[in-house]
Design goal:
- The chain is of the alpha+beta class.
- Helices cover about 25% and strands about 30% of the residues.
- The chain contains two helices and five strands, in the order E-H-E-E-H-E-E.
Length: about 120
Amino acid sequence: GIPFDCHCDLPAELPLEGVELCSLFSNVLDNAFRAAEACPRDADRTVSLSAAVKNGVLILSCSNPLPPQALPQKGRGHGLGLGILEDLARRHSGELKTEQADGIFKTTIWLQAGAAEIDLDRA
């Protein structure tokens, strides 16, 4: 009962171990779907995910609605799995960014996926 919008444009081979790639997607999506499930059924509960490699950087972005009870806790603590995502970003010369605005939570992670260093202004 949760709409899912997914756009992935990824090469067949990525410089991540299978378990890391699985951990990346499963942690992001698990957090997103848990939050959407906690929202009222009459709300827009859409989870959106995009992933692509640009300029040698794997960029994964996911947005989901924030449950009403989560809104007052702005900036407090980590969701389940965000620590794992931070560790993945660190190990792959990347960055994890989370933000929330207007009832939407967005997670973006950049991971080194090529020989060049990450330039977030160009990625």
